[in-house]
Amino acid sequence: MTNTNKKVLVTGGTGYIGSHTVVELINAGYETVIADNLSNSERFILDRIEQIAGVRPKFYEIDLCDKAKVEDLFNAESDIKAVIHFAAFKAVGESVKEPLKYFRNNNLSLINLLEVMNEKGVNNIVFSSSATVYGQPDVLPATEATPFQKALSAYGSTKQMGEEILEKVSSATIIKSIALRYFNPVGAHKSALIGELPVGVPNNLMPFVTQTGIGKREMLTIFGDDYSTPDGTCIRDYIHVVDLAKAHVKACERLIAEKAESNYEVFNLGTGKGTSVLEIVNAFEKVTGQKLNYKIGPRREGDVESLYAETKLANEKLGWKAELGLEEMLSSAWAWEVKLHEGTVEV
Q: 303: which residues sit within 8 A by CB, 6+ positions away?
């Protein structure tokens, strides 16, 4: 049964992390409303959310850069208690080539949202931030107090700016905000009905691994094996998307229940464990029984050597902890890829 006192607007709710979060919100008794322009996601995901959760979220196909449309949405949905803001362009490589596209879309959409929220008296927002804000930290693991390095991409800049906007707005208006800094989300829902669905060539490692495993990609290129890491490949903190989704529910609960300790809070979301690219490849082969065709290529511009999280703050304050391990991440990502390949998912 939904709690009418708990209506949550999820921007970018048909995307990868957004769709998994909508499922977890519905499971936790929230009424959900999705706003998405479908520029990087598919409408059929709404059917899949309904299949999994038994409830079809209300859906608005709008671009948040159009402030009038944002106002119309808030007028139509007058009892929103919190917003989870995922909607943003997120391809690091593209953002290096087209920085203005990223600055305009990612920052303007957030500003429009905050202005309308402030006008309508909606005062809770959970912001989708990223571990890219840290760059390559001098000391690992990265904590919430780790200083930002200069962003290597326009995408990273927009996440740093987004946090800065939220911090300043939360100190000057009614708005209370929580920024969640994700490390590397992977995996798919256990039903294999929703998962990561990149448009075109994947930017992230996991869909490239599964697409190579299924034969959609001829070969996986590992970017560099000469880093100062045990096996020479980059290290990241991989986190199951379902664990990540559950953290958003916890953040919403914290804001709605007025448990936040300040108007602006930040939490790292990761497992606290670093895994190298080669370790992912070897674990994938072991978990799925699929041999991967891969080669070592040159380093990729913008990649940091090693990044993993200190998650103590989220564990203690949010009451959240990552529970799913690497095996679940890989097996669920593979099950989703197999379903895609069998044509059981419309793309």
A: 223, 224, 234
